Amino acid sequence: MSDRGDSLPVVAILGRPNVGKSSLFNRLVGRRLAIVDDTPGVTRDRKEAETQLGGRDILLVDTAGLEEAAPESLFGRMRASSEAALEQADVAIFVVDARSGITASDRAFANWLRRARRPVILVANKAEGRGGAANAMEAYELGLGDPIAVSAEHNEGIAGLMDAIVEHLPEVDAPSETEEEEDEKLLRLAILGRPNAGKSTLLNTLLGEERMITGPEPGLTRDAVAAKWQDEQGPIRIVDTAGMRKRARINAKLEGLSVASSINALREAEVVILVLDALLGLEEQDIRIARLAEREGRAMVIALNKWDAIEDRAAARSRVADTLETSLNQLRGLEVVTISAATGAGVDKLLPAVRRTHERWNRRVGTGALNRWFGNMLERHQLPLVEGRRLKLRYITMPKARPPTLTIFGTRAEQLPQEYQRYLLNGFREEFDMPGVPIRLQLRGTENPYAEEQD
């Protein structure tokens, strides 16, 4: 049974590569979360999503394909990850391919599932068309009960499968008020970076388990994979993503899907942890990722990984700081935490930095304090002339946070030069302790209906 205590019942989807597990996962979740491609072995890590079936909330887990392989090989590590998913599951869905028929591997894994003492739902996928149901009957020989014939691609038989899943779910208590409050406090994180920077190793270290498949092979993670855990301040949902290479190097369709999945994870996050390889420093692609996070309004912390391999640490820090100053000035004051994801050194400092950054990203400044500061800034540096006429800025508000957003009203405010805008933004960061978070500045000129009233 699941060891997740009072959390959602866990349903794990297992089976050989390319039998349609990820397509089935997407169909049950009701949206495209897992990458689907004809290439065998696309899914390498466990992917989780909360969904509702028949009025019951569940945690659905997509797994890597089950294959017979040496433990130290990539496929061996993928199988170990799938076995770990089964350990945590309350219900297992075993998927076979009705189109290609039952294989020796299917029989071997069916025997393994029988020994696991979990409720198993046998699903014969790709059973569309006239002969589909007849082909599905071949799965009876596995001794796992009546096979449910479905076609994940064509949405056939899915309703019956949902009913079967609900029938096998354990009884659970209704969520308490405390659990509902925790959901509201949930911090959403995404780990981004170039391939082989150590993103998956970092996630495993944070979770204290081998949640992600890691190894020397670059680009192991292909999909955005989420996990939940908790620190002293509350629940956290963290997403590990595929490495993001330069667009010019993304040739294969599969890698393009991986990058798109990473970008979606960034957009759903509140804070991004940008993992850098300290041996390489802050390179052009890292800057592109950071700028993308800033454009999307996400808060960010840099994890400078593989710090244990750096000999001249002062020089390495200086290089990163110089690059941040010249290339990411719009995120001035970004927190940089030096870590070794492999050994765990420094990782304990990462979440406190994330929490500090998240608090700033959420912070609201009252209109009174904001306008007192604004008046001082205008007195310190006179507004410039534009087309021979002096601009007149009247007042400032902060209509929203997440990210902090400032709106300035005044006569021809929309013509305020970029240099003066930077002056105001830098002053705001310093006055209200807002380093390292993106700040939006909106300018409302005389077209504002309240402008005439202020004359």
Automatic annotation (TrEMBL):
<keyword id="KW-0690">Ribosome biogenesis</keyword>
<dbReference type="InterPro" id="IPR031166">
    <property type="entry name" value="G_ENGA"/>
</dbReference>
<keyword id="KW-0342">GTP-binding</keyword>
<feature type="binding site">
    <location>
        <begin position="240"/>
        <end position="244"/>
    </location>
    <ligand>
        <name>GTP 2</name>
    </ligand>
</feature>
<dbReference type="InterPro" id="IPR016484">
    <property type="entry name" value="GTPase_Der"/>
</dbReference>
<dbReference type="InterPro" id="IPR027417">
    <property type="entry name" value="P-loop_NTPase"/>
</dbReference>
<feature type="binding site">
    <location>
        <begin position="125"/>
        <end position="128"/>
    </location>
    <ligand>
        <name>GTP 1</name>
    </ligand>
</feature>
<feature type="binding site">
    <location>
        <begin position="193"/>
        <end position="200"/>
    </location>
    <ligand>
        <name>GTP 2</name>
    </ligand>
</feature>
<dbReference type="InterPro" id="IPR032859">
    <property type="entry name" value="KH_dom-like"/>
</dbReference>
<feature type="binding site">
    <location>
        <begin position="305"/>
        <end position="308"/>
    </location>
    <ligand>
        <name>GTP 2</name>
    </ligand>
</feature>
<dbReference type="Pfam" id="PF01926">
    <property type="entry name" value="MMR_HSR1"/>
</dbReference>
<feature type="binding site">
    <location>
        <begin position="62"/>
        <end position="66"/>
    </location>
    <ligand>
        <name>GTP 1</name>
    </ligand>
</feature>
<dbReference type="InterPro" id="IPR015946">
    <property type="entry name" value="KH_dom-like_a/b"/>
</dbReference>
<dbReference type="InterPro" id="IPR006073">
    <property type="entry name" value="GTP-bd"/>
</dbReference>
<comment type="subunit">
    <text>Associates with the 50S ribosomal subunit.</text>
</comment>
<comment type="similarity">
    <text>Belongs to the TRAFAC class TrmE-Era-EngA-EngB-Septin-like GTPase superfamily. EngA (Der) GTPase family.</text>
</comment>
<feature type="domain" description="EngA-type G">
    <location>
        <begin position="187"/>
        <end position="362"/>
    </location>
</feature>
<feature type="binding site">
    <location>
        <begin position="15"/>
        <end position="22"/>
    </location>
    <ligand>
        <name>GTP 1</name>
    </ligand>
</feature>
<comment type="function">
    <text>GTPase that plays an essential role in the late steps of ribosome biogenesis.</text>
</comment>
<dbReference type="GO" id="GO:0016787">
    <property type="term" value="F:hydrolase activity"/>
</dbReference>
<keyword id="KW-0378">Hydrolase</keyword>
<dbReference type="InterPro" id="IPR005225">
    <property type="entry name" value="Small_GTP-bd"/>
</dbReference>
<keyword id="KW-0547">Nucleotide-binding</keyword>
<protein>
    <recommendedName>
        <fullName>GTPase Der</fullName>
    </recommendedName>
</protein>
<keyword id="KW-0677">Repeat</keyword>
<dbReference type="Pfam" id="PF14714">
    <property type="entry name" value="KH_dom-like"/>
</dbReference>
<dbReference type="InterPro" id="IPR003593">
    <property type="entry name" value="AAA+_ATPase"/>
</dbReference>
<feature type="domain" description="EngA-type G">
    <location>
        <begin position="9"/>
        <end position="173"/>
    </location>
</feature>
